[in-house]
C-alpha cells in the first residue's frame, strides 16, 4: 500500500475537506510512490483521511481524489466524476445562452489540476497537475465517449505545470481543429483562438458579468481596460453605448476584439482601440481630461498566491484610483480581480481605499463572481479566484 502519514495536528485542513496537502505536513511516506501515483493519506493516529495523487517534489505534495476509503481511483472513478461534472452543466441550462461552457473546473469538480472547456463541438483540455497527467489517456477516452466532440485540443501551457515538474504541451489530441472557431453567447458571436489565445481561448468566467454591462451600457461613454477579445465591449456596443474605448497591451487581443465587433455587425473606428499599457493609458486619459460614464477594469492576475498580495494591492489601488478620477459624477465602475491571493474582503478594502484617495463615495450595486459553470467548492476558498464589484459613484 502506498501511503502518506501526516504529522500530528496537520490533518485539520483535510478534515475540513480542503483538497491539498503541503509537503511540510507529511511525516512519512510508505510504499515508494512515484509522482502521480495514488496514495492513501492517514493521520499519525492511523485514521484514514483521503485518497490523493502524490508528488514527491512539488509544494503541494498530495491532491485529493476521494474522501471515501472504499473508493478505488480507476477508470470507473474518472467516468463517474466526468459524468457528474457534465450532468451538472446540463442542469445549469447554459446551452440556451451559450455554446461555450466550462465542463470541468479542477478541484471544484473533484478533479484537481484538470480543466475542460467546451467551445461548440470542440473541447479544450488543460492539465496542471502530475496526478491528472497520469490519467490523461483515460480522461481523453471518456471525453470522446461522453461528448462525441469533433476535436480535443490540449492547452497545457500554464506556469503551474513547472511547479509540478511537467513540461508544457499544446496541440490537437483528437480530431481536427476547425480553421475558424466561433461561439455564440447571449445572441452574440465571439471568435475563440484556442491555439494561442489566453486561458483556453476565451474568458468564459465573465459571461454573466458581461451581460450585466450590456444592461447598463445604453447611451454611455465606456472605457474597457484589459479588454482582451472585447467581451465587455461587444456587449456594451450592442446595448447602444455612445462610445466604447477598448484598451489592451496585446495587438493580437485587439485584432480578435475587432473581429468580434465585425462578427456582430457592430460599427467601430480606429479611435476606439488603444494598444497600450493600462497603467500609462489611464494617466494619459486623466491628463487629457477625458471623462467616462462606465469603466471596466478586468486586469490579469496580479497575485497568483497570497505572497504577492501586497504588490498586487498597490496595482489594484492604482488603476482603481485613476478610474474613479476619470468618471463623470454618478458613473459606474465594474472592477475585477482574478487573483487567488486576494480575498474578496481584501479586494473590497483596496477599492474602498482607492475611492477615499480619489475623494469620491460609491455604493456596491452588485458583488460578482465567475459564472456558475465555474463553481466554488465551499471547502476550497482558493476556487473563488474571480471577484468583482459593480460600483455606482455618488453624484
Ligand atoms: N476582460 C477580458 C479578459 C481580460 S484578461 C474578457 O472579458 O475577455 C487580461 C487582459 O489584460 C489580457 O488581454 C492582457 O493582454 C491584458 N494586459 C495585461 N497586462 C496589461 C497591461 N499592463 N496593460 C494593458 N493590458 C494588459
From TrEMBL:
Pfam short name (any one): Methyltrans_SAM
Record Gene3D superfamilies: PUA domain, RNA methyltransferase domain (HRMD) like, Vaccinia Virus protein VP39
Any one GO CC term of the record: cytoplasm
Highest rank taxon of the organism: Bacteria
Record protein name field: 23S rRNA (Cytosine1962-C5)-methyltransferase
MF annotations from Gene Ontology: methyltransferase activity; RNA binding
Family annotation (PANTHER family): RIBOSOMAL RNA LARGE SUBUNIT METHYLTRANSFERASE, S-ADENOSYLMETHIONINE-DEPENDENT METHYLTRANSFERASE DOMAIN-CONTAINING PROTEIN
Amino acid at each position: 500500500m502506498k501511503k502518506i502519514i501526516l504529522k500530528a495536528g496537520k490533518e485539520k485542513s483535510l478534515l475540513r475537506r480542503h483538497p491539498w496537502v503541503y509537503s511540510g505536513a507529511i511525516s512519512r511516506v510508505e510504499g515508494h510512490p512515484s509522482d502521480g501515483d495514488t496514495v492513501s493519506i492517514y493521520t499519525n493516529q492511523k485514521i484514514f483521511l483521503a485518497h490523493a495523487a502524490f508528488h514527491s517534489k512539488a509544494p503541494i505534495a498530495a491532491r485529493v481524489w476521494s474522501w471515501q476509503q472504499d473508493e478505488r481511483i480507476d477508470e470507473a472513478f474518472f467516468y463517474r466524476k466526468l459524468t457528474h461534472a457534465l450532468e451538472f452543466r446540463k442542469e445549469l441550462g447554459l446551452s440556451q445562452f451559450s455554446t461555450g461552457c466550462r465542463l470541468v473546473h479542477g478541484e471544484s469538480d473533484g478533479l484537481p489540476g484538470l480543466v475542460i472547456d467546451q467551445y461548440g463541438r470542440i473541447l479544450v483540455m488543460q492539465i496542471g497537475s502530475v496526478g491528472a497527467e497520469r490519467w490523461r489517456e483515460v480522461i481523453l477516452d471518456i471525453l470522446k465517449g461522453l461528448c462525441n466532440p469533433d476535436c480535443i485540443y490540449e492547452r497545457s501551457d500554464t506556469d503551474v505545470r513547472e511547479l509540478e515538474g511537467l513540461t508544457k504541451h499544446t496541440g490537437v489530441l483528437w480530431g481536427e481543429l476547425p480553421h475558424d472557431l466561433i461561439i455564440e453567447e447571449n445572441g452574440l458571436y465571439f471568435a475563440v483562438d484556442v491555439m494561442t489565445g489566453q486561458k483556453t481561448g476565451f474568458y468564459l468566467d465573465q459571461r454573466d458579468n458581461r451581460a450585466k454591462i450590456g444592461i447598463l451600457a445604453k447611451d454611455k461613454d465606456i472605457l474597457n481596460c484589459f479588454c482582451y477579445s472585447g467581451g465587455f465591449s461587444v456587449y456594451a456596443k450592442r446595448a447602444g453605448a455612445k462610445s466604447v474605448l477598448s484598451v489592451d497591451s496585446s495587438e493580437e487581443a485587439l485584432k480578435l476584439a475587432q473581429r468580434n465587433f465585425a462578427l456582430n455587425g457592430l460599427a467601430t473606428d480606429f479611435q476606439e482601440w488603444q494598444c497600450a499599457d493600462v497603467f500609462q493609458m489611464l494617466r494619459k486619459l486623466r491628463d487629457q481630461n477625458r471623462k467616462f460614464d462606465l469603466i471596466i477594469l478586468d486586469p490579469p492576475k496580479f497575485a497568483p498566491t497570497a505572497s504577492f498580495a501586497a504588490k498586487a494591492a498597490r496595482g489594484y489601488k492604482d488603476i482603481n484610483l485613476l478610474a474613479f478620477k476619470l468618471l463623470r459624477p454618478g458613473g459606474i465602475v465594474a472592477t475585477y480581480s482574478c487573483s487567488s491571493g486576494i480575498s474578496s474582503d481584501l479586494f473590497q478594502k483596496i477599492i474602498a481605499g482607492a475611492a477615499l484617495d480619489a475623494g469620491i463615495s460609491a455604493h456596491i450595486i452588485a458583488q460578482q463572481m465567475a459564472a456558475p459553470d465555474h463553481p466554488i467548492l465551499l471547502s476550497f476558498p482558493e476556487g473563488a479566484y474571480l471577484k468583482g464589484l459593480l460600483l455606482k459613484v455618488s453624484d
